[in-house]
């Protein structure tokens, strides 16, 4: 009996299958099978939302200027080869990479993580990377735009939840208030109950959370209702960043001064308060303005966790290099990430990628 030719499956069936894929790396693998599968899954309104139209405020737009800007989803992956069975104990350096795709999924761009990595940093990637042969861990995503950065109504940060895509955004240099919006031509819904000046937003357990500079934290519903879930923390720092780590919501309180310091808190849902953590264990936090995420030291193939890596210029410190630094909680100090090669090398293509 001849083997089935999977490339000849009907387009309608392939389309139905692709619409049920909820994980982006699975969609990338699905589309890489063959050209027929790729064409059949080019659905503009697929709920993975590779691009979205962000509505600009109508009072600052006119008939000659579009009232939307286009945001592209940029996903964060930790990738490494799947070792042969006999070499399971061999540590192979993984690659921490951001990948941007357009709405059809055809174009992929590999973006450098560290802010001092520029286009002059030259390396040659293979023409195609076969994700079927890789171990891939999806760590997070952000949304970016190619619009002029000085437009004060462009979003500083956007997060999303749900198949029907509800979005929460912070505007850039305009207002400390949040905006809630959906795909389509619907206007913003302002969230006036909390200010995000020096605060942050994130998704935790499929829900929107926002914290202000005093650590007051709210949960925002899809109908724009706001529920207070944690009161303020006394004697806080200058900047707050939220990050999900191993099933828990963490708040990183940052003191941006010459005496740079950090406190980390864990959200206690039942008691509705932030509880200070003294140790992150095996976890490594990666903090940035557009997206924060975490991974285990074992997944990263680094010697230990219990540290925080700053990946952009969202936080300023004298000892950082272009906004990039590593803070070890057990040492209580921050240093340029270039001093720690096991972290610094995560952001550059490893030999097994360049040689593939």
UniProtKB/TrEMBL annotation:
Residues annotated as domain F-box: 9-50
InterPro entries: F-box_dom, KIB1-4_b-propeller, SCF_F-box_domain
Pfam families from the UniProt entry: Beta-prop_KIB1-4 (PF03478), F-box (PF00646)
Lineage: superkingdom: Eukaryota
SMART domains assigned: FBOX
Protein's GO biological process: protein ubiquitination
Protein name per UniProt: F-box SKIP23-like protein
Upper taxonomic lineage: Eukaryota, Viridiplantae, Streptophyta, Embryophyta, Tracheophyta
